[in-house]
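Figure S7 source data.
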Amino acid sequence: MSKKIKLNDKNFKLYLSADEIQRKVKEIAAQINIDYKDKVPTILIVLKGALIFASDLIRNLQIRCKIEVISAKSYGESMESSGMVKLKYLENNFKYNDIIIVEDIVDSGLTIKTLIEELEKYSPNTIEVASILSKPEARTVDVNTRYIGFEIPKLFVVGYGLDYSELGRELKDIYILDE
Ligand code: IMP
Ligand code: MG
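Tokens for the predicted magnesium ion complex:
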């Protein structure tokens, strides 16, 4: 199996294998099972990137939970965050809920910050963040991220839900830009 791929004009090489990712997902789920033992959290999936991680995570939960989705967009077709976050809201009432926002990656932190500010209008009980990836060096705003799978350098990645210009989301492994 080739561990180098090309999407449009860019080359990528293997960075995190499907096995490593699945082990990490199980660890995060185990922690959530403990932390939310007596609660019924609302898993809020940030589309489209977090779709794959969220579905693996949810299937490793042993507690009851509710599922909601929201669509957020900041990258467009480029490899850089646009600095503007577009949230597409579905009609939800998050009052009193314990929300776990599930993200693919926390980069500048802007998406999460915007989303949390929006959710706070509904006065939920608690809001936490679970993301399979985080780029701490890319942060421009401060956000509290409780469950992080892997901290990675400030390089562009694809796979496991993350895309380059809408391509590569279906890949089971995570690939990094091969410059
Ligand atoms: P933030 O608002 O800058 O934290 O960006 C978050 C969003 O940008 C993520 O949910 C991703 O959809 C996208 N993003 C950030 N870094 C990458 C990357 O390396 N590859 C693909 N998408 C990314
Ligand atoms: Mg995303």
